[in-house]
Write a structure and sequence with these properties.
This protein is α/β, with parallel strands linked by helices and about 400 residues long. The chain has helices at about 15, 35-50, 55-60, 65-85, 110-130, 155-175, 200-205, 220-225, 230-240, 265-280, 300-325, 325-335, 350-360, 365-370, 375-385; strands spanning about 10-15, 50-55, 90, 135-140, 145, 180-185, 190-195, 215, 245-250, 285-290. It has two domains: about 5-325, Divalent-metal-dependent TIM barrel enzymes (TIM Barrel); about 325-385, no CATH class. The protein contains 15 helices and ten strands. Strand 9, helix 10 (about 265-280) and strand 10 (about 285-290) form a beta-alpha-beta unit. Helix 2 runs parallel beside helix 4 and helix 9 (about 230-240) runs parallel beside helix 10 (about 265-280). It is globular. The structure holds D-gluconic acid (GCO) and manganese (II) ion (2 copies). D-gluconic acid binds near residues 137, 185, 219 and 257.
Length: about 400
Amino acid sequence: MYVPRPEHHFTFGMWTYANAGRDPFGDPVRPLPDLDFHCAAAAKLAELGAYGVNLHDNDLVPIDATAAERDAIARRYAQALADAGLCVPMATTNLFSHPVFKDGAFTSPVPSVRAYALQKAMLGIDLGVQLGAKIYVFWGGREGSEVDAGKDPVDSIKRYRDAFNYLIAYAKDQGYDIKFALEAKPNEPRGHIFLPTTGAMLGFIATLDDPTQCGVNPEVAHETMAGLNFPHAVAQAMDAGKLFHIDLNDQEPGRYDQDFRFGAANLKSSFFLVKLLEDRGYAGMKHFDAHAYRTEDRDGVWDFCRGCMRTYLILQEKVARFNADAEIQGLIADLLADRDQVAGYLAPYSGPQAAALKAHSFDIDALGRRGSRLELLDQLTVELLLGVR
Ligand code: GCO
Ligand code: MN
Ligand code: MN
């Protein structure tokens, strides 16, 4: 039981298993990765049961590589993936590490930086497509500000929109079978990042020239940093038909971006997330965008990868138990029951029905006194998660 297999569609960012554990106060604690390591890691991830690896352009190809070097690296890595039986379902552009992006990429006030960002993104999309990616993620880590003195927020959002309209047109023009997924984050590395939540991204996507090409890539840690309920953000994306990808990890609220192993911090919220994804038939990749603790060596990193997938599968089994638990389902059915037979009033609007509803008399005091039994339902959920149910 709980053995990850390729059909579970678990994927890892190249930057996650290869994360060397550098932080703002400390040097790397694990070796910096090279191409040999990534080729060997593909075999290791396949052995652990993963489905694929996702990457930024510069996780694989140095930023100053020539076109010939880039093709040679991509060919060698594609062969290592094929030998391991893994694929690259998602790719993305690093628009945040190089100093050129210190005040943004697509939203930089400097026209040459914006043009360079478009060039880099087009080349990144080409590389992603070459490796087979069907989703292209955009996380605008530097698209924000510390002060608004030098960067008008309305102009910035217009520039952001222009960039996505341009890149969607580019991908179509090339005939690429790839869709975009925008990833929100409230802060870090910028003091304030534009479009800081998944909800903000969804509103922005509707303003693009062709919104059909663009969805979201919500991340557990990012909504949690903002103090928001992650399953609710995911639900809104699902409702809009925009959950194109997801970044799974964990995070304590009110902290720096921790990127913990999936389920490491908030088990109950992780459970309701898995429940949402499984009950609603999410068919996309389950991507872990997390890091091993800085205390770990490279063996500890494989424990971390195994742990992410295993916790997901354990929670998936808990979801099945929850859905099959007669007492739990009975409590939920009671909550939903139409005890006062008012369903007719809740049908889509019609004049006569609205007139009848306006004339209806409700016993709101009795309704207000009615208990919901959520204490019991929540306790049963906790007991189920603790393994005594
Ligand atoms: C972060 C982000 C990134 C992105 C990645 C892919 O907080 O650093 O989550 O890990 O997901 O750049 O776009
Ligand atoms: Mn993150
Ligand atoms: Mn992420």
